């Protein structure tokens, strides 16, 4: 609810990593690991901003942020085929109006 992201290992109650104020205090409403690249995860905040973390590129801050200004996004999920090395990673955005939007992530964040 405060925009913090914590990476946990199942065997410990303490996080391995913690990113405070990563969304400038906006609540995170969806977060998912990339299906095609294990070091990448994406988060959606309550202000319809998408953040991309690539832990191999930078483990301190998101490597990209994309605002979706047209309409409030209420949730997201990711598309991809982990068994294929084609580097396609899609983001499915569900908007408040019921409209669905699909966007693709740059290959550098999608390739295995």
From TrEMBL:
InterPro entries in UniProt: DYNC2I1
GO cellular component: cilium; cytoplasmic dynein complex
Protein origin, superkingdom: Eukaryota
GO-annotated biological processes: intraciliary transport
GO molecular function: dynein heavy chain binding; dynein light chain binding
Name this protein carries in UniProt: WDR60 protein
Species in which this protein is naturally found: Polioptila caerulea (Blue-grey gnatcatcher)
